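retry 2 of 3: previous attempt timed out while embedding zinc ion. Reduced batch size to 1 and resubmitted. Inputs unchanged:
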Amino acid sequence: MTAFDDLMAHARETAALDNVMTRLGWDQRTMMPHGAAHLRSEELAALETVLHDRRTDPRIGDWLEAAEAPDAAGQAALRELRRSYARNTRVPARLAAELARVTAMGQEIWSQARRDDDVAAFLPVLRQVVALRREEAAALANGGDLYDALMQDYEPGASGAETAAMFDRMRPRLVALREATLARPAPEPLRGTFPQDAQLRIARKLAETFGYDFAHGRLDLTVHPFCAGHGEDVRITTRVVETEPFNCFYSTVHEVGHAAYEQGVDAAHALSPLGRGVSMGVHESQSRIYENQLGRSRAFTGWLFDQMHAEFGPLNLHDADAFYRAVNRVHAGYIRTEADEIHYNLHIMLRFDLERDLLRGELEADDLEDAWNTRFEADFGTPVDRPANGILQDVHWSAGLFGYFPTYTLGNVYAGCLFKAMQADLPELDADLARGDLSAPTGWLRERLQRFGALREPRATIEAACGFTPDEGPLLDYLEAKFGAL
Ligand code: ZN
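retry 2 succeeded.
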């Protein structure tokens, strides 16, 4: 055994244990009895201690020094292991375990607080989470920016300043587009009640149509839809509101995009550092292009209109054009996950600014609700009516995920780039989408991007797939063309 082989064998076992941790997290949010929250916190903290010990094992440092990669994939694996080893050796075991314990509790408390519209019930644990993440960021930043230090976990190579500059370039065009769109008469929304069972039948059909492999996954219900797992076991969740079937359908397609990336990585990379999506931004590019550029296109919504008609009978929307307009209705709603493609990015910019201030100590948890409500009214033109529609709507902060939100808009930007390149390569795309045949676009993404996993750095992954340097231009051009014509 060479140092490289020892290192890879060790990393493989760590990845297997990490999968167990992921599955406990999945269980916590889908199947776990409500009363098991304390026990689960202890279990996750215990496993986190084991994982932290493995990830900070001093032998890794020795192996990394001596290892010689046999090929390009080996070099990329060493790059990923060097990054995670440097990250993990800077965080004390006590802090890592405490973070796992408090964020597990935090998610449970958030879930109840959201149901009760009770910010006061959530604040004590939020204060704890913020304090622990600031402490962790300080350990990671080595004197640098605290927010940037946390961003590296989700988007290696990204920075808060660069992100803020990109958001500043995007905001004027998004605001102008939003105003032009809202000035026109609002399209008729879909009305009616759509039973859960029937919605889930369509959701499963959508998942299969977009290439989700149910032999290596499953679909369950949660408050906040997500995708969890890698390789042969990649699970997704969705939610059902009986009066809003698009919520269920597009949440499902979104999570299928994430799952397709994980299910699409070459089997040769399984349990290696390359056997997963390379970053949250690149991940989100997959979920977004499935959900928006493909799933909300005029061509594909024509197919979906027929599916809904077959399942539910006549709708209040009489033809596929009216259906397309309803799917893409632009409105300044409260909820990020229900936002249209224009407002979505404004939701992200709000959260990005608040959490960056929070991490850098320029805003305290106790003042977050006021800051949120003030900013929301300024950006969206209406006051927040209740905390579940405001500060309590997202799980992220309860789970300590600061630095994660901007990767959603980065994903949109990358999806814009990928779609531009895909359209140039697939002249029959609209005809395929109209038939509900997604094999060409999903095959294109698998071949150009998904199968490589973490082989290349995030931006390089997008650049290699597109054939050009990614920026926000293609997304904004796409949005202006689409919503200008609606
Ligand atoms: Zn996503």
